[in-house]
Write a structure and sequence with these properties.
Its EC number is 4.2.3.4. The protein has 14 helices and 12 strands. The protein is α/β, with parallel strands linked by helices. It has 2 domains: 169 residues, 3-Layer(aba) Sandwich (Rossmann fold), CATH 3.40.50; 170 residues, Dehydroquinate synthase-like - alpha domain (Dehydroquinate synthase-like, alpha domain, Up-down Bundle), CATH 1.20.1090.10. β11 and β12 form a beta hairpin. α1 crosses α2 and α6 runs parallel beside α11. The structure holds nicotinamide-adenine-dinucleotide, ligand LNCXM5UN and zinc ion (ZN).
Length: 354
């Protein structure tokens, strides 16, 4: 299956095909002239797929190097970025060369950030290997690193030259990672795709979800494609992709990066904002129940045991949807349709109440 993302300055394809990683070199050859390539990955993914990818690309006549980071959210940092810049310089990467990002959302965001800033920008390709990365982070061109103050505080918009999604890579993924990917799937359905929501309703648990991997990935990529084509730079409709994220990112930052995964935090964030919105009358009743049922079925957390409103509030003041003392929040009109409201930042305290 193929989807094209058409943006004012760039168009690229998302290829979704089981087993395609075996011939990844052909795909790279179809997009790039022979050149130097650095693969950015993490140690777990490198162990599983690194050799295969490197060999396949080398066989096409490219000169290939690999840089591997420690797996996990803590690696999505400026320190990691600097190490990669130095590696790129050591192997003599120039602006005619390219970067391939192989792994989950962490290497996706970090690698995209490095690619878009090294020598002011190199071409790059995304090969996402987690469900979360295949349904969300590899598409749309948001790159970022975290700092201790806030999640994704520093980043760029930079689109890849192509995205290769091989759902077979999900077969080696741990259950916790399948579940966190499903949180973003539920988000995509809740904000913009009732048909996907109805498909998810027929799936009993996270294990069965993998039987529908291609349909799910295609539907989510299509939601993201539609939204990003309309608003690449996140000034309007794209904000809906942030449903559950204002509180979710604050949870990730306050708990310490990697303690609660991104998907788990988004699951908690979607339920918390919906619960309070129903109380405050900014969302119709009944949505929380549906959302909670769906997320619990996939064994995702919907709340936290300990909740520090003050530190969560402090963390979310750095959300990129704030403008002065206002913030845009994402709510649901109904399942399948999101809405954006502007409120006083202080009012977020009401949305944080337990
Ligand atoms: N840019 C965006 O639009 C966007 C969207 C959503 C999320 N994100 C970001 O994505 C990040 C989370 O991504 P993630 O959940 O993929 O985390 P991740 O990249 O840390 O991957 C999770 C774990 O799975 C392992 N792994 C990856 N592929 C594997 C495979 N095929 N088999 C076995 N293990 C594998 C990794 O080594 C890692 O330990 C967060 O930083 C989040 O902010 C970005
Ligand atoms: O692509 C987008 O736009 C999103 O908001 C997708 C989110 O799932 C993703 O987590 C994104 O990285 C959040 O971006 P941020 O602008 O809130 O840092
Ligand atoms: Zn997200």
């Amino acid at each position: 299956m193929k989807l094209s993302v058409n943006l004012p300055d760039k168009a690229y394809d998302l290829l979704i095909e089981k087993g395609k990683l075996e011939t990844v070199g052909n795909w790279v050859s179809s997009l790039w002239e022979k050149q130097k390539i650095v693969i950015i990955t993490d140690d777990t993914v490198n162990e599983l797929y690194g050799k295969k990818v490197e060999e396949s690309i080398k066989n096409e006549g490219f000169e290939v190097f690999t840089f591997s980071i420690k797996p996990g959210e803590k690696s999505k940092s400026l320190e990691s970025a600097e190490k990669i810049y130095h590696f790129l310089a050591e192997v003599g990467m120039t602006r005619k060369d390219g970067i391939i990002i192989l792994g989950g959302g962490v290497v996706g965001d970090l690698g995209g950030f490095v690619a878009s800033t090294y020598m002011r920008g190199l071409h790059f390709l995304q090969i996402p290997t987690t469900l979360l990365a295949q349904v969300d982070s590899s598409i749309g061109g948001k790159t970022a690193v975290n700092t201790k103050i806030a999640k994704n505080l520093v980043g760029t918009f930079a689109q890849p030259d192509g995205v290769l999604i091989d759902p077979n890579t999900l077969l080696t993924l741990e259950n916790r990672r399948i579940k966190e990917g499903l949180a973003e799937v539920v988000k995509s359905a809740a904000i913009a795709d009732l048909k996907l929501w109805e498909l998810l309703e027929t799936i009993p648990n996270e294990h069965e979800a993998l039987n529908f991997s291609e349909e799910i990935i295609y539907a989510c990529c299509n939601v993201k494609r539609r939204v990003v084509e309309e608003d690449e730079k996140d000034v309007g409709i794209r904000l809906i992709l942030n449903f559950g994220h204002t509180i979710g990112h604050a949870v990730e930052q306050t708990k310490g990066y990697g303690v609660v995964t991104h998907g788990e935090a988004v699951s908690i964030g979607m339920c918390q904002i919906t619960k309070q919105a129903e109380k405050l009358g900014t969302m119709p009743n009944g949505i929380l129940e549906k959302l909670t049922q769906m997320l619990e079925k996939f064994h995702l957390p919907t709340s936290l045991e300990s909740w520090d409103e003050a530190s969560l509030y402090e963390a979310l003041t750095h959300d990129k949807k704030t403008r002065g003392n206002k913030i845009r929040i994402i709510l649901l009109e109904t399942i399948g349709q999101a809405k954006i409201e502007t409120i006083d930042l202080e009012k977020m305290k009401d949305y944080l109440k337990q």
